[in-house]
Amino acid sequence: MAVSKRKEDSDGARMCIVTRASGDTDELIRFVAGPDGTVVPDLKRQLPGRGCWVTAERSVVEKAVSKRLFAKALKSDVKADPGLGAEVERLFVLQLAGMMNMARKAGQFITGSTKVEQAVRSLAALAVFHAADAAPDGVRKIDQARKAMSFASEDEQEIPSFRFATEAEMEGLLGQNAFIHAAALAGQAGEGVVKRAIMLEKYRGNSRVGAHGGAGQPNQ
Fold this sequence. Notes:
CATH architecture of the largest domain: 2-Layer Sandwich
Helix content: 40-55%
Number of helices: 8
Order of helices and strands: HEEEHHHEHEHEHEH
């Protein structure tokens, strides 16, 4: 597998098969041909075999499907499911939820409006998260803290805010760890949460990372 990946890199395979633009692995999604002849997303970039790369945006993945570019790139008679774009989004969401659970165990992900507001005001929060259907009053209170503390930060920027799923969707993803309001704190796991949240927002096509778009919806 290692030899295959080195050859893949030397062949300049980290170029989007749709846009033909090059990028690093955080900006692209790797795909391989599965044993059943279907196109399989390889978000962890660990699956064996020849791979191809697509810009990490749902609209670009769906264009690759509609234009049947995977077969040419993978040099195989593979089939790309019409729902591949949605499947990749589902996997991004699962990755984010998994990292949230990991960060929680590490003490780098807290929940509850009071704790979140305190973390924001103490400049301990890297980012905040709300359920997509959270009550406006609760969100507004934390937003006020974000705005106030932006003046206390060196770059005078508000910490990002994300709304990636409804409360019901999060119960399905996180079980008893579902939340209405949460914050990621400093540390490797907390930073991993923020990184994956940004990737999900970009994949969904949100133009302003950290704004308040609902689950699966672009920010307005």
